[in-house]
Amino acid sequence: MTGKAKPKKHTAKEIAAKVDAATTNRGGGKAGQADRLGQVKGGHAKFECPHCKTTAPDAKSMQIHHEARHPKLPYDESKLINLHASLAPETSSSKPKPGIRGSFKK
């Protein structure tokens, strides 16, 4: 007898998932840190706190941060710094845009 009911071979879907997980940038390392901090194009962080320069992905998260860290200062959404507007690339490229996860899969 060779084994239990579980097959010993991997399916094509499982192998493709492993290859995709190994080759797609998930946000770790120096590139992921730059993306999280918003150094290149704003990254995931869209708003920056005008008081302490902490970044947040949306206005609601920034409001929560402001209430927790700066309770004595009044919250004004118009004072928030929009990193996507200030750091957006100005030149438009004619290259095709990548697929769902950043690759040219067909």
TrEMBL record:
Residues 1-39, 84-106 are annotated as: Disordered. The keyword Cytoplasm applies. Its main location: cytoplasm. It comes from the Eukaryota. The keyword Cytoplasm applies. GO terms for cellular component: cytoplasm; nucleus. It is found in: Cytoplasm; Nucleus. Keywords: Cytoplasm, Nucleus. Residues 1-11 have a biased composition (Basic residues). InterPro entries: MBS1/2-like. This is Uncharacterized protein LOC109712697. It comes from Ananas comosus (Pineapple).
